[in-house]
Amino acid sequence: MNPERPAEHPAQRPRGHSEEPSEEHPGERGERGTPIGRRVLLGTLGLGALGVAAAPTLQRGLESLLAGAADKDPTGLTGLLPNGGGFRYYSVASSVPRKSARTYRLTVDGLVDRPTAYTLADLRALPQTRLVRDVQCVTGWRVPDTPFEGVRLSRLLDAAGVRPIAKAVRFTCFDGTYTESLTLDQARRADVLVALRMQDKDLAHAHGGPVRLYVAPMYFYKSAKWLSGITVTEDVRPGYWEERGYDVDAWVGRSNGRDDEPTS
């Protein structure tokens, strides 16, 4: 991976919600994963090489395999491997509970007139927007033409009735660790979604499902996985990675010392 600028020393940097902004460890009860064995790791490395030339069906299977291996790997080694879908897995939490359509809730609160809690069914019932953009990681990798589909964040903000004093939005995640933020103007862009689908499939747990944030024009660490809370605030509150040196305004190609092609 290319180093971030600014960047932590690798030994100090958490396995991160930086891009794919967090990989989970499985379990409704929050149990910690067990280390993967040497044979599994070597086999995964071999499959990673094979996936470079694999057919799309095999690539999708490889992505699933790597996600499962990462579930059971607290060492973080599997997070360094690219998978068939082009994504890499990182984590900032030791475990992440799984949420189903029955248990999932997304709250919208803070400086609003009508605080609201949405079920997954509520979100699915709202008008959906589909975007196809490149995904750009601040570490350098890029996944072209990735479809995301969901509800425009601006629609949820309008429904809640944002108060005039508000200037920003803070996002929290049900991994219990990761946070993100946008200015209110950024949050109201038409290419910022509360996403329910990715690559034309319902969001899997490994990709932040059932609901994640998607901020198309910014580096992927802004697209927080496992979204659980949207809080309207008076000022921008730096998120998890911004507190560790990343840019708050993370426009692709115009931040973090990088000159990548824009994604939106």
Automatic annotation (TrEMBL):
Residues 1-36 are annotated as: Disordered. Residues 1-32 have a biased composition (Basic and acidic residues). Residues 95-241 form the Oxidoreductase molybdopterin-binding domain. InterPro entries: OxRdtase_Mopterin-bd_dom, OxRdtase_Mopterin-bd_sf. PANTHER family: OXIDOREDUCTASE MOLYBDOPTERIN-BINDING DOMAIN-CONTAINING PROTEIN, PROTEIN-METHIONINE-SULFOXIDE REDUCTASE. This is Molybdopterin-dependent oxidoreductase. It comes from Streptomyces bullii.
